[in-house]
Design brief:
Bound molecules: adenosine-5'-triphosphate
Helix content: 25-40%
Strand order of the largest sheet: 6-7-8-3-9-10
Strand content: 25-35%
CATH architecture: 3-Layer(aba) Sandwich
Number of domains: 1
Order of helices and strands: EEEHEEHEHHHHEHEHEEHH
Oligomer: single chain
């Protein structure tokens, strides 16, 4: 069931990298327990917007952000620090990026930072997170082996498990399957659909079939603007803007 109040409420968001205006007057409400997909041609601001949602752009030099971004009614720039925000809003990147540590230590890393030290507690978190990421059965007998020895698809599910281990509320995924083969891609898509019962998921994808398959809502970005934001089925079946139609029918981008 969809909550009435949005998880994220974004109003008049503008972002500049130096003099470059990368996000222009973005207004969007992102619902809890849904998958929201961002599509659009390269360089149109999808990743920039995604990163703004957990303030990853704070780390970029000369960035200037105006406007309102609320998470559960709290202003993410004023009412909470970046650490608290990133605890609630985790991120999975395009290239799987496990730490050069054991599978176990990859998952236990975040919980340890948040002060969990008892082995029994960590064991439980490691198992639960790997199960949620649908990779426990594949990895349970090699928890002390290096995560770098896993396949790309396994590494990505491990990274999702690592994100889940600190119990976030939202998972941001930036093209999480673009480096993966079709079987691994399909596993991550199934996983995203299972996880939305418990989490809110926002995914950037270049794969329109993927957006159509797994997302509830889709936003089409172009040149830093959101041209159209709608239920995924409506946006693909009945685009309201001719630029959306051109893009989804492959006439540009
Ligand atoms: N750190 C930065 N400094 C300056 N400009 C940047 C920076 N990061 C991104 N940009 C510019 O902002 C614009 C939007 O980039 P962004 O990565 O958000 O696009 P995107 O839609 O996610 O693209 P892609 O689909 O290729 O990943 C691009 O023109 C990009 O060159």
């Amino acid at each position: 069931m969809t909550d009435m109040k949005p998880k994220f409420d974004i109003e008049k968001l503008n972002l500049h990298y130096g003099s470059f205006h990368a996000l222009k007057d973005i207004n969007m409400q992102i619902s809890a327990h849904e998958i929201t997909a961002f599509i659009g041609p390269s360089g149109c601001g999808k990743s920039t917007f995604l990163k703004t949602l957990n303030r990853m752009n704070d780390l970029v030099e000369n960035v200037k952000i105006d406007g309102k971004v609320e998470l559960d009614g709290q202003n993410i720039f004023k009412d909470m620090d970046a650490i608290t925000l990133r605890h609630k809003v985790g991120m999975v990147f395009q290239q799987p990026n496990p730490f050069p540590k054991s599978i176990y230590d990859n998952i236990a890393y975040g919980p340890r930072i948040f002060g969990i030290t008892r082995k029994a507690d960590l064991d439980e978190i490691v198992e639960k997170s790997l199960r949620q990421a649908a990779i426990w059965d594949e990895l349970k007998d090699r928890l002390n082996k290096s995560a770098l020895g896993l396949s790309g698809g396994q590494q990505q599910r491990l990274c999702i498990a690592r994100t889940l281990a600190v119990e976030p509320e939202v998972i941001l995924m930036d093209e999480p399957t673009s480096a993966l083969d079709p079987i691994s891609t399909s596993k991550i898509e199934d996983l995203a659909m299972e996880l939305k019962d418990k989490y809110t998921i926002v995914i950037v994808t270049h794969n329109m079939q993927q957006a159509a398959r797994i997302s509830d809502k889709t936003a089409f970005f172009l040149l830093g603007e959101v041209v159209e934001y709608n239920n995924t089925s409506d946006l693909f079946a009945n685009p309201g803007d001719e630029r959306t139609e051109s893009y989804i029918t492959g006439r540009f981008g």
